[in-house]
Amino acid sequence: MHTEIARAIAAVDSVLYGKQLQVKLALTCLLSQGHLLIEDLPGMGKTTLAHALARVLGLEYQRVQFTSDMLPGDILGVSVFSAANGEFRFHPGPVFSQLLLADEINRTTPKTQSALLEAMEEQQVTLEGVTRPLPSPFFVIATQNPISQYGTFPLPESQLDRFLMRISLGYPAPEAERLLLKGGDVRGRIEQLPVCLASEQLLEVRARAADVKTSDSLLDYLQRLVGYSRESGQFAYGISPRGALALLSCAKTWALLNGRQYVVPEDLQQLLGPVFGHRLRAAEDYGEHGGEALIRLLLREVDVVG
User: Is pTM beyond 0.90 here?
Assistant: First the structure.
């Protein structure tokens, strides 16, 4: 694994105990030029993960708590008339940061959700006829609570698909929780984390990940996975070409982080849940998306060798 990235993962793990896999997945998502959705209970460390990642990567960080009365301008920015010089002046919103934590994104209205998701997709904001590019790198970590649905606006399929990955942190292991209980002020320790990877190095790793090799047999396996989701009849709808490209991009980055210049089937299998989970729904399920059962079905029914 890239030395600086290994240091970054270890640094985040020093404040988010026992979650190295989730930290590595989040870094994979960032390095694959995607955005991350974290679906978990309150108090599981979602904000800690986002803040610590921004710190060790030296990224400008902002957090927005979404509410039902937020407007797109609260995220994107607004133009305010200045009486002093007689013209409008643009005040950029929190979206103009390198790492944005969109906390409880399903608490805000579809109009505001769409404004943020458009910025995520286009990497720019157009207001009043003026297009303004967003910083590079630009990474959104959005969170939502899976159990408290009162007063929420669930993300539809088309908007869920904008997220490269969906993960959850889960409860800590007893040993990790004991360290957390003894650790004291987490926020203070985050501020003391070293910058392990500069923005220029991040962009360099991104470029290296894009050059990771994939064999025809690996692509065959990927196409069989995608084809089974479309043709088996057990899914409400299959994986789109964008979903297939998302898994391939993440697998290349994952291989690089594991010290390889080529992708193996285990890379696809490791990332199948985070990348495909929120893009799948069982044929008879009209509510929740994905789930471990659908991922296990793909892994069980689709052979690695055709």
Answer: yes
